[in-house]
Amino acid sequence: MKVKRMKLALFDLDQTLLPLDSDQSWGEFTLGLGWADPHTFKQRNDGFYADYNAGCLDIHAYVRFATEAIRQRGLTAAHEAHQQFMQQVIQPAIKPQALELVEAHRAQGDTLVMVTATNEFVTTPIAQAFGMDVLLAVQLVRDADGNFTGDIDGTPSLREGKVTRVNQWLQAQGLSLPEVHATFYSDSMNDLPLLEKVDVPVVTNGGPALKQIAQERGWRILDLFETS
């Protein structure tokens, strides 16, 4: 008897399920709270974002930068600020068509996995808002008191690291990618390694370069936030 393959629906987050970059938006939100010098922060933040889009981000340096305000203010203040961030920035950006896409996979019995290069502090409440079963984000090292150190725990879920993290999670379930049926939605050229590994790659809100690859390879193209 043929064993039914586990079905995964993998979702990138920024510019895929959300029409914004949550990491950059969180940084700008904390800037509005007066947690950093505006000129210095914006210059560094924009530089890191440009590196990400160019596929050359030093994620260890970026995570140290991105968690600096959290580490300085402490987790209590950071969590309170994140609740405001969810209410003021993220919830209004969660569009019905994104929720419908996720819910369609849930209705099919797929396991819903958010796999993102944004860190776990920023993305855990967002994954919960989308009703994800699993979050594979950049994990953060904590000290003995539970505070973030600015370092990354394990393999960062960026570029080839997303393949590694998905495989690690599957191995913990006694599975591997060839043993499951996986669909992956992403907008980013950084996610090409994982798009090439799954059964159904879906270029979602992608730029011209990624859309061209999708057209050449016969991949599905989805413009989730396109308005008529």
CATH fold-level name: Rossmann fold
Mean pLDDT rating: 95
Inertia-based shape: globular
The CATH H-level superfamily is: HAD superfamily/HAD-like
Task: Evaluate the radius of gyration.
Answer: 18 Å
The CATH top-level class label: Alpha Beta
Quickly count the domains: 1
Q: Which residues sit in consecutive blocks of at least 5 with pLDDT less than 50? A: none
Helix content: 40-55%
End-to-end distance: 48 Å
Looking at the overall shape, the CATH architecture is: 3-Layer(aba) Sandwich
- E-strand count: 8
User: What portion of the residues fall into strands of 2 or more residues?
Assistant: 15-25%
Structural class, by secondary structure, is alpha/beta
Give the quaternary arrangement of the chains.
single chain
**Major pleated sheet:** 6 strands, parallel
Number of helices: 10
Strand order of the largest sheet: 3-2-1-6-7-8
Strand-and-helix sequence, N→C?
A: EHHHHHHEHEEEHEHEHE
